[in-house]
Amino acid sequence: MSAQTRRILTHSFCVIVTLAAIGYGFALAFLYISRINGGIPDPANQRVLWRTPLTMAILGLIVQLPVELISLAMRRRKPSATGERTEAVPNLPNTETNLPSLPGRETKLYTGMATKVD
Fold first, then answer.
1. What's the burial of 64, exposed, middle or buried (CB within 10 Å: 0-12/13-18/19+)?
2. In the chain, domain spans
3. Residue 96, SS3 per DSSP
C-alpha cells in the first residue's frame, strides 16, 4: 500500500469516526429534547440513533474524498530533465540578492531582513 493510499484511508477513517460520534450526540440530544417537550416516546424515533451518525459519516466522506484526491493531484512530483523526481513547487530563490537601492547605500537581503551595508 502506498503512502498516499494510507494517508487517504487514515483521513477517511478519522472523518467517519468523528462525524459518526457527533451525529450520535445530535441524535441523543434530539431524543432528549423531544421527551422534555412532552413528546410521547415513539419507537420509530429510535431509528434516529443509527440514521443520523450514518448520514453524517457518509456526507463527510463524500466531501472529504474529492478534497483529498485534488490535494494529492496538486502535490504530485514532476520529473526533471536529469531524471530525478522533484517537487511540483520550485525552490525559493537565493536569499542573498542585491536589492535596488539609492546610490552609495547598497542593501542586501539576508534571510528575509534588509540590512544596510557600510
1. middle
2. 3-82
3. coil
